[in-house]
Amino acid sequence: FSDARDFLNLWHEPGSMKGTLDQLDTDGYAILDTKISPEIVAELASYFASAPCTLTSDQELNMAPEDRVVVDMEKPLAVKYSVDTNAILLNATVRKMLLDRGLLQVAQQYLGSTPIVDIVTAWYSFPSANPSHEAAQLFHFDLDRVRWLKAFFLLSDQTVETGAHVYIPGTQRDGGISPDLLSKGYARLEDREVAAHYPESQWKTMVAPAGSILLEDTRGLHKGISLKRDHRLMLQFEYAQTLFGEEPFLATVPL
């Protein structure tokens, strides 16, 4: 990656990338010591606040799938606002982060091949009476590609009340998910179903401040906790080993 810049300044401490890779191999996730600056957090939060979004809800929405709206922090229309991908990619800071040398290096090491940028997305989450199936607030596993690594950038404080991410360490490995749960297919799973195989003491709840960076193999069981107050804003990249499978996510973006 001779043309890539160290925009995020990762892996400067001796052994930091190896430690991250070891944790990814063992647990399936790693929260990095390095954070993005408060200035970048504020810049991106301000940018996304005026960007066009699509809505996700478990209830029927009075709008067409192609309709776009700007987020309403005071009176949200849905549990999830997904920022238009074209708008995300038009942001110069996002592009620098996406092609950061350190992220490309760790993705290549984890995947065992040159990483391919597959998904770029950002979304707001808002409180709801019950966990949302559509907004991935129940346990599930992803089946995006043959192999992939996701980078999550927290653009708001993530607490148990504001939608912390939950992951079950080790379930990303072959045989890591119980056959009983796999027999249910590619489905959302209730907490009680998961707890019958993985006690809550094994669950890792990612409480972290704005600016934190989370790397995760989402083949493992995970979910976002439904919010009790405020909102959550997240930016996510996916680096894939191959585009085998569905049409590439970014191929549908009218750049």
Notable characteristics:
255 residues, alpha+beta, 7-stranded antiparallel β-sheet, 3-stranded antiparallel β-sheet, 7 helices, 10 strands, 22% helix, globular
In short:
The chain is α+β, with helices and mostly antiparallel strands and 255 residues long. 22% of the residues lie in helices and 20% in strands. The strands form 2 sheets. Strands 1-8-5-10-4-3-2 form a 7-stranded antiparallel sheet. Strands 7-6-9 form a 3-stranded antiparallel sheet, with no helix packed on it.
The number of distinct β-strands equals 10
Low-confidence stretches: none
What characterizes the major β-sheet? 7 strands, antiparallel
**Integer-rounded radius of gyration:** 18 Å
In terms of DSSP E residues, the strand content is: 15-25%
* Structural class computed from helices and strand pairing: alpha+beta
State the distance separating the first and last CA atoms: 24 Å
- In terms of quaternary structure, the protein is single chain
| Cross-sheet strand order for the largest sheet | 1-8-5-10-4-3-2
Shape designation: globular
Question: Any overview of this molecule?
Answer:
The chain has a 7-stranded antiparallel sheet with strand order 1-8-5-10-4-3-2. It is built from 7 helices and 10 strands. By secondary structure, the protein is of the alpha+beta class.
List the helices and strands and how they pair.
Blueprint: H1 16-27, E1 29-31, H2 38-49, E2 53-56, E3 80-83, H3 85-89, H4 92-98, H5 101-111, E4 116-125, E5 148-154, E6 165-167, H6 179-182, H7 191-195, E7 204-206, E8 213-216, E9 222-224, E10 232-240
Antiparallel strand pairs: 1-8, 2-3, 3-4, 4-10, 5-8, 5-10, 6-7, 6-9
